[in-house]
Amino acid sequence: MPLPNVVIVGAGVTGSMLAMLVKEMGLPVRVLEKSRSAGGRMATRELRGGAGGDKVAGRADLGAQYITTRSPPEHAVLGPVYRDLETAGVLRPFSGEVAGPNPYGGAGAEVRHFSAPAGLQSVAQRFLDRSGARVQYERALSALELLPGGGLRLDVASGGGAPAALDAEGGVDAPTVVVLTQPVPQVLGRSRFPVSGNFLERLDGDTSAALAKVEYSSRFAAAYFFNAEDFAWKETWTARYFERGDVRYVAHDTGKRGAGLDESMVSVLVHSGVPLGIEFKDDVAPFDRAAARLLEDLQQKLPGVPWDKAASVKVHKWLYSQVYKGIGAKRPAPDWTWDSGDGGFPGCAELFRTERALGLLAGDAMAPASNFEGCVFSAHRAAEAIKAYADALAATAAPPGGGEGGDLRVAAR
């Protein structure tokens, strides 16, 4: 029987790490990403300028701000990951002052922080580059249908809504593994961008109930870009958390990343609190009301920054900012460590299984922590499930050829 094709939906940390792990198994893998670039909630905003508009004038991490680990450098699983990212220049130690009450458990002698000079989006890109996987951007999975013979049909739309074909790889007789890494409400059909189809009909009742209890926090991010001559910064800290008000986090993003002279502009990144995200959760871009509230609070909290001289402001709404309650309504732990156990989190959930197809749901909602290492944990658990499925296929006799159940059918929509 041919090796199974693996299709990963989402090029965030979970999906990109999983692509690398699957490639190491020798399985064919491709990644579908609805955005124009990798990263997911580790997205980095690039402001371009200069001749032709191609040169990056400034960057800002819109989502995750820095990576925190409590694992020792020699950790068997995580150690090689961090060493590779540092050696490649993707990550660097971050020793800047983080002021205010950090809600994510940042204290402790064993804690190490990392930032990314080119933005944290480069972490997922590094994993994808190492995987050698075929990555198709601006491709969104719109429907997933189980066929009567046990095969699959995938309906794929381009990021702009125009039809886009997804060709089958590995031969039409190859079984298919599909791993969804997008937020759980999208998988369950409870969001503006649902995945339709009958693929949840085989989901057992307990897993369905546990997934229905997943909750996310929502918040806004605002990136302010300044020409260097118009910028002033009098604070001693690089990043700060605030307990009250609409603004709950501010970072001198250029300083945090240790960006070199290749960036001519200075960026400051702001995150709102969850209450503002809830209040304006139905607003659409350009999010003027949220932007006005954030600016008003910034002028009170940091009057020394010339906010009115910002050359560009990008406001982004994170509808699914961070996992508030994971699978089964379990709360993720901000100070979780890999060696402390899984805390009852499965790492991934099985959506369906046939002789011709396996469907998994992965991501930090399945993990003990809603952070980088939680995503890595989920990717490893999903990789284990894929390997077990591939091994089981290899141990069985090849079924009769032909027929609907043996096909990976992909339709454009």
From TrEMBL:
Transmembrane stretches, start-end: none
Question: Which Pfam families does this entry report, sorted A to Z?
Answer: NAD_binding_8
What InterPro entries does this protein map onto? FAD/NAD-bd_sf (IPR036188), RNLS (IPR040174)
Recorded hits in Gene3D superfamilies, A to Z, give: 3.90.660.10, FAD/NAD(P)-binding domain
Q: Tell me the GO molecular function terms.
A: oxidoreductase activity, acting on NAD(P)H
An annotated GO cellular component of this protein is: extracellular region
Q: Which PANTHER family match?
A: RENALASE
Protein name from the UniProt record:
Amine oxidase domain-containing protein
The organism named in the record is Zooxanthella nutricula
